[in-house]
Structure formats: C-alpha cells, structure tokens
Amino acid sequence: QVQLVESGGGLVQPGGSLRLSCAASGFIFNIYAMTWVRQAPGKGLEWVSDISVYGGTTRYVDSVEGRFTISRDNANKMLYLQMNSLKPKDKAVYYCAKRRTSTVKTDISYDSRGQGTQVTVST
Description:
- There is one protein chain.
- The chain is an all-beta fold.
- Helix content is 0%, strand content 47%.
- A hairpin with a 6-residue loop joins strand 5 and strand 6.
- It is globular and about 40 Å long.
C-alpha cells in the first residue's frame, strides 16, 4: 500500500524559508517520478514541481522558479521541497504525490498523494 507522509510545514514570515519532507513507503520509490502539488485556500490543486527518478531532471511552475528546490533521497525513500523567499501567495496545503511512471510532467496527474502539510506565510 502506497503511503506518503509530508512534514515540515508551518508559519513563516515573508522572505523566510521552509523545507518540506515526504516519507514514502509501500512502493519501489526509485522507479517513479515524484511531484509536489499545492492547494491554496478556496482554489484548486496547482502543480508545483517534479523530479525525475535519479533527480537529474527537475521542473517548476513559473511562480516558484528560482525560489524552490526539489530533491530526493532514493536510499531513504524521501522527497524534499526547499522553499526560500516565501511569499504570502505561497500559502497552501502542500502535497507530495507519486507519478504513475518515471516520466516527469508539469500537471496534476498522479496516482497517490499524501495528506498534506500546511504552509502559511504571514507577518
């Protein structure tokens, strides 16, 4: 059974940083691309970032390019999202999700996701 458990969210001031983590289990982690998606209050899901199986290819939505960094640790089945220079518009519930294949994408198609972790950016 696929399990994805996010952590690391919280309240941070504008300009601050957070590192989200996602612990994966129940599947062969190092054969799937992984993704982060988010949902802001009152809005739909938004794709944020993707990473290939060995981390050589990453993709970001334009609004976080240069501020967020996705990474993974296949040995420990962990996915990360380093978020710097956070802005109020980054406030959302962030979910890690497993892609259906090893292909990196830029949409919200996935077959499993975690329960999410709340990120709030406010003074």
